[in-house]
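Deliverable D5.2: sample structural annotation.
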Amino acid sequence: MKKKIIGIFIYLLFLTILFHFPVTPVENKMINLDYKNDDIGWYTSLALDSNDNPHISYYDYKNGDLKYCFWNGNYWEIQVVDSNGDVGRYTSIALDSNNYAHISYYDHSNGDLKYCYWNGYYWNITTVDEIGKVGLFNCIALDNYDYPHISYVDYDNIFLKYAFWNGNEWIIETVDENVGLGEYYSDTTSIAIDDSNNPHISYCNRENRDLKYAYFDGFSWNKNIVDRTGEVGQYSSLALDSKNKPHISYASWSNFDLKYAYLSDEKWYTETIDHEGDIRKWTSIDLDSNNMPHISYYDYTEGSLRYSFFTGSDWEIETVENEGSTGCFNSICLTSDDKAVISYYDWGNKALKYASSIESYWLINTIEIDSYTDFVDQQQIYCSGYSWPINEGKPVAQSFTSNSSLLTMIELMIVKILEPGDFSVSIREKIDGEDLVKISLQPEEINMDLSWKTFDITDINITLGQKYYIVCSSEDTGSNDMYYWYFGHNDPYINGEAWVYNNKWEVFQYPGFPDIDMGFKTFGFINEIPSTPIIDGPSYGKPNVEYDYNITAYDGNNDELLYEIEWSQFDNESIGPYPSREIITVKHMWMEQGNYTIRVKAIDTHGGHSDWGTLDVSMTKVKAACINFFIIRFLENHPHLFPLLRQILRLKDIRLIFDL
């Protein structure tokens, strides 16, 4: 009787404690880390809000998603905006009077121009133009009513088009014909809205390769040729000054120079800003409070992000970052105190980056970076801006010396032109020897945009410190249908060299480009052993009754897991494989009374073994009601209560209350 009274007392105490402690709500917030990234940060577009916080739209190349991030004052918040198909190329962003983002972008799956905006609660997504293949090289700007205006290219008809929202519907117009330069020979349009809400657009004329400028005066479109000296106008960027006069940065393909044009007294003036390197891609312009231009751009020769600004008397040029090939798809803005900030893509590391001008130096932030379970062993990520064709019967190779005993993957800096045949990559111990491993891809698997292409080969064991060869070959190539492998020069990779085949293998030599190495990465693998399994289930029971036990473990490489389970000394089993983190329910029955220790070990697909997870259980005769088990479990999880109860009741084991 005394034990029953004590049991009731403990039960009431349990309820009192349970309902006395308040429940703390779980905070649900977005974090600035994405664990499944792969080649992210293409087509960045940057805008600053009223607090100078950056907002960036960009393209996730691996997953084909439109993404958006912004700095909230403490960390970067990252969102997937649209993942319906392959969407998000050629993104452009603008912020409205509420600091909400508006983004135009290209739907590659359907060949459409799309637009989305944040209303404070969710993203509104719509298709603006779906007639033909439209929406490439788009750019967005907002008027005084926060209505979007978008310039873009109709690829099928090679038209420059313009779409705007009038408050009720989208209005679409053709501004000019025979513009754009094709999907491989990429170009851009750039749009700005003046104080009268009229659009101004810079673009390149395809027929003559001229820089052109169009503006709407309230009644009709006016079109001007800004620069026609050689092949110019590629990758133009437009900004309007306080008097609504246009300023344009752009590239010259004739001389590989960075150029700048502005309109003054109804006359266009042009000048070359940087001619030292190979400047022919990705320029972006903004104007400071004195209407002085600031330009970010990519230097192909150095593989670097550069920045130029006009002081009022001359141009100053700075290198922002020059690690590998970094600075592609750059976008510049100026803060309220005229400090330059730039978003861009780090090609060598497959990362979205953001640079801030801080007095005499640049602060570099990596927002998102490619995340591999494999690690980069050897690499050559510098691109001179030039490439070598891989023709049928004329393979190209690059040697490397590995520091990893396991080769798991290869990436190459290649591009496809038109429609060649299959592309093959093999690894050889001798350049003219047999293939240790070989993988072939069909043409549609390789992009026409210059990018890193991943070749997930069968893992092979190789010898540390020994030289091996990456050999690339292709089939059914023609005068225009072929693959190109991009390279760097001046010996950017000291542990190997580039080779070409012309009846025999020779070290690659080309006038003006000494010590050539092709762009490549090789990957090894570090296996992370699984976590110690967690076992959850009843600690007490009785023989000849089946009980459920939940088992889970985590693998750092996200491998599937096998589980070895020891229920007792002579009662073992193995189950699996199961996905990492999956909760597995296993049933078990003990036939005899006694105390047991359940032991579980996880084993990944690479043979990595976890430590043993354990759970002590007791199978004995039970007299108490089922509620006693819940009380026991509660007290086991709150051990700080047991000393008090033991002192009050003078018990050594709480289970004695229930005669267990």
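Annotation notes: The chain has three helices and 51 strands. Confidence is low (pLDDT under 50) at residues 11-37, 182-186, 623-627, 648-660.
The annotation will be released with the project's public dataset once the embargo ends.
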